[in-house]
Fold:
Amino acid sequence: FALPAAGGSSVACVADAVLPVAPSVTDNCGNAITASAPVISTDPSCGGIKTYTFTYTNCDGSTLDWIYTYTIAAPTYSLPAAGSATVDCIADVVAPVVPTITDNCGTVLTPGAPVITGTAACGGTITYSYPFTDCSGATQNWIYTYTVNPPTFSLPAAGGSSVACIGDAVLPVAPSVTDNCGNAVSASAPVISTDPS
Structure:
């Protein structure tokens, strides 16, 4: 008996490398020759080859193998657009919610620890860069950028009082002032006008 040519196809994911249908085979006298259960190679970890080997055995014990080969592409993935937000205070800069990323075969990719760059002690930008690495080792970074507005503050109304003598015009206590983020704003030493004559 003889076997048809080996079979094969290309697929996107290892899950698509399903059990093929073994061909019908007869010997030269028209007797059907049954194939064994296939020997299946291990799944490739990141694209590659997966084979199904069927063994046909003749009545005299002679055997032939028919092989079906899947060529499996390496998984691919893409990241969504970078994220951003504008905030008023450095305390509002927190780790962002990272999107869930899956490759084309449905495998969830786990991000690495973020690389945090930038400074915004008095306004500025801070970025979080999360690396996603696929099974082949290729890495893409998803980036989230915070723009921190410079702090603002306002003063209470000007103060004043009436006194009888120049000696009573003593140094007043400057009011406590905080910015919109709750940080204390320091006053300079006062500029004092000359005493009236």
User: Anything to note?
Assistant: The chain has a mean pLDDT of 95. The two ends are 128 Å apart (CA to CA).
